[in-house]
Amino acid sequence: MAPEAPYRANAEIRAYPRGAGPVPAASSGRRTTRSGGGERLRMDSRQEPRLPPGQYAPQAWQVLHYGPVPRFTPSRWDFRVYGATASGKEHVYSWDDFGELPRTSRVADFHCVTKFSITGVRWDGVAGTTLLELVPPAPEVTHVMAWAEYGYSANMRIGDFMAPDTLLATHRDGEPLAAEHGRPVRLVVPSLYGWKSVKWLRAIEYLTVDRRGFWEDRGYHNIADPWSEQRYSYQEDPGDGPPLF
pLDDT tens digits for 169-205? Predict the structure, then answer.
């Protein structure tokens, strides 16, 4: 399946064998320090990050999400891939099963629709392309829906999900994800605005017809390309997404 859109996010890709854990993040020109329980970011003065239009580099990583932070219980957690799979079957992974999947590393920029960008973030987890290989979609699949706790969802084109920098992340900058940042698994799609990088990921649904997710149904752009500043639904061109009701 050919990607539907060019991938503009700058990403460094590393892979390591199944069962191996992430190593400490290499230097990317960004340093994280902690003060008073918060995360502070210091940029290397020699680095000049390229940001999408309208974005800025903040002094701290902001925590934004809808609803409460869910509690993670490994024995009760599972991850599903369903919808228009090539086999017609639903695939379910326990937390132990998920931990046995091939893992990789990505270094990419993160762009929030609220206009802050964090450059050179190191993520570790399972590549979106790996999931597509393990559970192939039917040939007619055009989009995926990412589902999280409490029924939160975000849709995207299959080309965005199969981008080389898309990741089902368990670690950020060499450390397991904090609860407020999506522990245990967060979808990371650097080529799109951050609300598409769904926290507390629980399922991927293969779609043969596009369907709007939570924020897309509430006035946010269906595609969400930060380099085109696709923030809101009123900016959509014909064909960018299904009708809003």
Answer: 999 999 999 999 999 999 999 999 999 999 999 999 9
pTM of structure: 0.80
Q: What are phi and psi of 97, to 5 degrees?
A: -60, -45
Give the span between the Cα atoms of 169 and 188, in whole angstroms. 7
Whole-number Å distance between alpha carbons of 204 and 158: 11
241 in a domain, yes or no? no
Taking the C-alpha atoms of residue 241 and residue 156, their distance in angstroms, rounded to an integer, is 10
Which CATH number belongs to the domain containing residue 92 in this structure? 3.90.420.10
From CA 244, how far away is CA 121, in angstroms rounded? Answer: 34
Query: By residue range, what is the domain housing residue 140?
Result: 11-19+28-235
Distant-in-sequence, close-in-space partners of 100: CB < 8 Å, separation ≥ 6: 18, 19
